[in-house]
């Protein structure tokens, strides 16, 4: 840890080395809250158009596939830009990533204010593309914020709270657009509703951008854990060759690659069902646009509880693989139950089934990210999460476009049946992933520090 020589005083006596201070500062909660807020605003924009597909089709006179691309573009940008973005994050740090993510979200939202006009759908796509780029600098940050600012016994919980921002944004994206943008007879009235939605987003993200610019720090003055002290002492400057070397080692990590595939199956289905919620529900319940939005909301809100509960359980038990496997299995079972209730055409049963499905689908997100971090420690968290989500987004595009085509040609029954099968395959892959807990071995040294009164002071 740092220099190993023994400092000497002028009279030949050995100078006692002052141990480093391990201290978690109160400002860590402000950093987390700022992140949650702008992550919420960014992920809101993922489904803001696709959840009202039929209305957007009428207003802009475009196909359902064109509207689906307002969500699919988020998945496409990841594999294209994830490695350059990961290099920027690793080289320039947490604050730079936060600024790029927040400011790009604000710019994308502002551009869509000028998309109101029946021949201006291309402006919608420009704004969506910029917001999609912002998410590459946003979604990979929760584990990095957690280990940089928080104590070892808070990391999994904080990672879950960071993911909470993404889930909350998705939930609001399902809820608000169907309430705000109505299927009016007059197309100009639809345009007015869209204008209000775009201006509202811009008004909310602007002050948040100023807060991030002035108050979001790179790291705290004191390290919150012994593992972080070791990392600061031994930190190597991130050059392109260092980054590529780290990337190469990750791509040779077989347990990580297996887990990345299984995580991609779960996240890909999450993205697909979010994008296709509107046509899925309308195929069973005619004129139920608002129900589709509310069902998506319930799926995410109940899922938030599952996500936070998972983080708490992981901090207490450190059963990362076991938790991921059980949650994945229950995802597959609850997906099949959702299909069964839709076939019964009972709305209240669909609400119940989609709540259970959402609970486990969202609960897997923090479990999967934390397990990946365990398998790859001490690799940079942003790079690990970037690879994880890049694979997920590629699979999300494949699943969304494939399930959309199946839904249109063969019906929702077959689309959801294949969805359940994909989740079952992901469960099997999770069971085959070796259980390697590298980070826990490093964090085991932090236990002694948590017992020192000084270190508990904020």
Automatic annotation (TrEMBL):
<keyword id="KW-1133">Transmembrane helix</keyword>
<feature type="transmembrane region" description="Helical">
    <location>
        <begin position="120"/>
        <end position="141"/>
    </location>
</feature>
<protein>
    <recommendedName>
        <fullName>Major facilitator superfamily (MFS) profile domain-containing protein</fullName>
    </recommendedName>
</protein>
<feature type="transmembrane region" description="Helical">
    <location>
        <begin position="153"/>
        <end position="174"/>
    </location>
</feature>
<dbReference type="Pfam" id="PF07690">
    <property type="entry name" value="MFS_1"/>
</dbReference>
<dbReference type="GO" id="GO:0015232">
    <property type="term" value="F:heme transmembrane transporter activity"/>
</dbReference>
<dbReference type="GO" id="GO:0020037">
    <property type="term" value="F:heme binding"/>
</dbReference>
<dbReference type="InterPro" id="IPR036259">
    <property type="entry name" value="MFS_trans_sf"/>
</dbReference>
<feature type="domain" description="Major facilitator superfamily (MFS) profile">
    <location>
        <begin position="31"/>
        <end position="438"/>
    </location>
</feature>
<keyword id="KW-0812">Transmembrane</keyword>
<keyword id="KW-0472">Membrane</keyword>
<dbReference type="InterPro" id="IPR049680">
    <property type="entry name" value="FLVCR1-2_SLC49-like"/>
</dbReference>
<feature type="transmembrane region" description="Helical">
    <location>
        <begin position="194"/>
        <end position="216"/>
    </location>
</feature>
<feature type="transmembrane region" description="Helical">
    <location>
        <begin position="297"/>
        <end position="314"/>
    </location>
</feature>
<feature type="transmembrane region" description="Helical">
    <location>
        <begin position="323"/>
        <end position="342"/>
    </location>
</feature>
<feature type="transmembrane region" description="Helical">
    <location>
        <begin position="96"/>
        <end position="114"/>
    </location>
</feature>
<dbReference type="GO" id="GO:0097037">
    <property type="term" value="P:heme export"/>
</dbReference>
<feature type="transmembrane region" description="Helical">
    <location>
        <begin position="412"/>
        <end position="432"/>
    </location>
</feature>
<feature type="transmembrane region" description="Helical">
    <location>
        <begin position="67"/>
        <end position="89"/>
    </location>
</feature>
<feature type="transmembrane region" description="Helical">
    <location>
        <begin position="29"/>
        <end position="47"/>
    </location>
</feature>
<feature type="transmembrane region" description="Helical">
    <location>
        <begin position="386"/>
        <end position="406"/>
    </location>
</feature>
<feature type="transmembrane region" description="Helical">
    <location>
        <begin position="256"/>
        <end position="277"/>
    </location>
</feature>
<dbReference type="GO" id="GO:0016020">
    <property type="term" value="C:membrane"/>
</dbReference>
<feature type="transmembrane region" description="Helical">
    <location>
        <begin position="348"/>
        <end position="365"/>
    </location>
</feature>
<dbReference type="InterPro" id="IPR020846">
    <property type="entry name" value="MFS_dom"/>
</dbReference>
<dbReference type="InterPro" id="IPR011701">
    <property type="entry name" value="MFS"/>
</dbReference>
């Amino acid at each position: 840890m740092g220099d190993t020589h023994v400092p000497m005083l002028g009279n030949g006596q050995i100078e006692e080395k002052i141990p480093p201070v391990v201290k978690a500062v109160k400002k860590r909660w402000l950093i987390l809250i700022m992140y949650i807020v702008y992550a919420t605003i960014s992920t809101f924009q993922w489904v803001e158009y696709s959840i009202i597909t039929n209305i957007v089709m009428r207003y802009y006179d475009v196909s359902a596939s064109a509207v689906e691309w307002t969500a699919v573009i988020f998945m496409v940008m990841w594999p294209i830009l994830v490695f350059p973005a990961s290099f920027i994050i690793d080289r320039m740090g947490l604050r730079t990533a936060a600024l790029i993510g927040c400011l790009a979200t604000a710019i994308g939202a502002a551009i869509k204010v000028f998309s109101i006009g029946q021949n201006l759908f291309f402006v919608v796509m420009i704004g969506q593309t910029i917001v999609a780029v912002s998410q590459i600098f946003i979604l990979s940050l929760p584990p990095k914020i957690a280990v940089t600012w928080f104590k070892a016994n808070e990391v999994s919980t904080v990672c879950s709270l960071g993911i909470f921002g993404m889930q909350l944004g998705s939930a609001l994206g399902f809820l608000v657009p169907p309430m705000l943008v109505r299927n009016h007879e007059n197309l100009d009235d639809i345009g007015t509703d869209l204008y209000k939605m775009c201006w509202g987003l811009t008004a909310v993200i602007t002050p948040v951008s100023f807060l991030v610019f002035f108050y979001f720090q790179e790291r705290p003055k004191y390290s919150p854990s012994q593992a972080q002290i070791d990392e600061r002492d031994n930190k190597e400057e991130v050059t392109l060759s260092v980054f590529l070397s780290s990337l190469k080692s990750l791509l040779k990590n077989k347990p990580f690659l297996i887990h990345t595939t299984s995580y991609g199956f779960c996240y890909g289905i999450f993205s697909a069902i979010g994008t296709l919620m509107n046509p899925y529900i309308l195929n069973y319940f005619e004129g139920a646009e608002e129900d589709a939005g509310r069902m998506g909301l319930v799926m995410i809100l109940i899922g938030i509880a599952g996500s936070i509960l998972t983080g708490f359980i992981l901090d207490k038990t450190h059963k990362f693989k076991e938790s991921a496997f059980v949650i994945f299995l229950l995802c597959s079972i609850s997906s099949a139950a959702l299909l069964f209730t839709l076939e019964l055409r009972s709305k209240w049963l669909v609400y119940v089934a989609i709540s259970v499905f959402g609970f486990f689908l969202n609960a897997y997100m923090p479990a999967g990210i934390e397990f990946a971090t365990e398998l790859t420690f001490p690799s940079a968290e942003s790079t690990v999460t970037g690879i994880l989500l890049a694979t997920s987004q590629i699979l999300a595009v494949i699943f969304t476009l494939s399930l959309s085509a199946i839904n249109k040609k063969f019906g929702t029954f077959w689309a959801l049946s294949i969805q359940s099968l994909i989740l079952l395959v992901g469960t099997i892959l999770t069971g085959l992933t070796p259980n390697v807990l590298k980070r826990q071995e490093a964090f085991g040294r932090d236990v002694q520090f948590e017992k020192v009164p000084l270190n508990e002071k904020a």
